[in-house]
């Protein structure tokens, strides 16, 4: 009896999952974007036209029907072209980008901020501090941490200057 009950539950769950997945799938030729960071959710399954991302394997653009991809984000600007033509630029410090075979895309950033929220003066100060820390790093660990801070600071200054 218990075995029959488990079998019934599994088959019911499979049917429910199939219905849920089909209802949430984007329409043909559409791309649903989920973009979140620890500080904010920027997009929650919103349909967009294009996403440009900086990654350690090179910057690339994503359109509907893009080949499934998994990449690590490098510090830089993610540009989202929305369906109404509006362009949204968001600075990310690091994270991951996943492009699924159903044209859905997930950007999960460690930290992310709209470009208009970046302060160029504060970015310059952070860059100077990172350069000082890099020059005075006493061991390999300190050098590695300073190199990461320096890379992020350089990209923030670039992004704040645009």
From TrEMBL:
Molecular function terms from GO: proton-transporting ATP synthase activity, rotational mechanism
InterPro entries the record matches: ATP_F1_dsu/esu_C_sf, ATP_synth_F1_dsu/esu, ATP_synth_F1_dsu/esu_N, ATPD_C_metazoa, ATPsynth_dsu/esu_N
Keywords, ordered alphabetically: ATP synthesis, CF(1), Coiled coil, Hydrogen ion transport, Ion transport, Membrane, Mitochondrion, Mitochondrion inner membrane, Transit peptide, Transport
Boundaries of every F1F0-ATP synthase delta subunit C-terminal domain copy: 118-159
Coiled coil, from the record: 120-147
Source domain of life: Eukaryota
Domain ATP synthase F1 complex delta/epsilon subunit N-terminal: 33-112
Subcellular location: Mitochondrion inner membrane
Gene Ontology cellular-component annotations: mitochondrial inner membrane; proton-transporting ATP synthase complex
NCBIfam families associated with the record: ATP_synt_epsi (TIGR01216)
Family: Belongs to the ATPase epsilon chain family.
Name by which UniProt lists this protein: F-ATPase delta subunit
């Amino acid at each position: 009896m218990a075995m029959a009950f488990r079998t019934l539950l599994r088959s019911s769950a499979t049917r429910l999952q199939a219905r849920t997945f089909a209802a949430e799938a984007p329409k043909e030729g559409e791309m649903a974007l989920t973009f979140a960071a620890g500080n904010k959710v920027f997009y929650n399954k919103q349909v967009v036209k294009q996403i440009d991302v900086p990654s350690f394997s090179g910057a690339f653009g994503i359109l509907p029907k893009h080949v499934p991809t998994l990449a690590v984000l490098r510090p830089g600007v993610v540009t989202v072209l929305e369906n109404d033509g509006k362009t949204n630029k968001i600075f990310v410090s690091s994270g991951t980008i996943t492009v699924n075979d159903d044209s859905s895309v997930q950007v999960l950033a460690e930290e992310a901020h709209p470009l208009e929220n970046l302060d160029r003066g504060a970015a310059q100060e952070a860059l100077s501090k990172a350069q000082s820390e890099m020059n005075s790093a006493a061991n390999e660990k300190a050098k590695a941490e300073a190199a990461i801070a320096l890379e992020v600071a350089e990209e923030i200054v670039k992004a704040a200057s645009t």
